[in-house]
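In this supplementary section we document a worked example of the pipeline. Step one takes a protein sequence of length 305 as its only input; no multiple sequence alignment statistics are reported here. Step two produces a three-dimensional model, which step three serialises into structure tokens for compact storage. The input and output of this example are shown verbatim.
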Amino acid sequence: MGKKNGTSNGMEHENGKLQTGEIIVGDSSEVLKSFPDETFQVCVTSPPYWGLRDYGIERQIGAESNLDDYINNLVMVFREVRRTLRDDGTLWLNIGDSYTSGGRTWRQIDKKNKARGMDYRAPTPDGLKPKDLIGVPWRLAFALQADGWYLRTEIVWNKPNGLPESVKDRPSRMHEYVFLLTKSERYFYNYEAMREVAANGKKRAGRSVWNINTEPNKEAHFATFPTALVGKCLDAGAKPGCRVLDPFFGSGTVGLVCEIFRLNYTGIELKSEYIEIAMNRLSHARGIIKIPTKHEQRTALFADF
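The serialised model returned by step three reads:
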């Protein structure tokens, strides 16, 4: 695929096959309109969470003062994702939850995470109270279902190394959700790749709780989902040589895993600063990663699965 008002690059592997990565600067809902129907086999993405980060850019999703606006904006983006997804394709959507602000209108900068500092806080949504858990993941999942997606399952991403929250009146939340959504009733799902070893040593069907550690990223001042999480989604939904989409590319984790799996990918990101971070990560990875040619090598790279 040619260059589209952004950055395009390719990598020649030892086996002679050209694997291409394309990063586009722009608004996903607009950029995706330039792609034909059924371009991508799988979409793996983690959009900005509502009211948790200020990325300091106009038109940023997640900074809406109204929760319904946030949900509707994401529905519009994923409507284009569904159009550009192959009929047997899958969407793997990682989304976190949040609490009402309790009337607070700002949040102090966190020394470890500058993006946590906010000069605004969204008001409490209608029908909720201070300290309520908002339920953003399920609100979004049901909105996507109503818009035509098949909501196939929710996956609990458990974080064994998650940091405790500074609260004393409820348990610290150590999980997020990954939703598997599909365009059609019948779709590609690699059942064998998702099988796991049970306590008795026998193989069993993959389970819906994934124990995956978070991964630090010293270049990014915002949350990034781990390579092992992306790899598990691609194990289930990707076909050899297919093209993968991430409409919220961020620091490029999906692209990084696609490099390892020898998959073509398109990433879309609104903020040019994050494109630079992604390019640095991908360039560094190309210098140190030996592209696996056997399943055993590929599995070893993601032993935490």
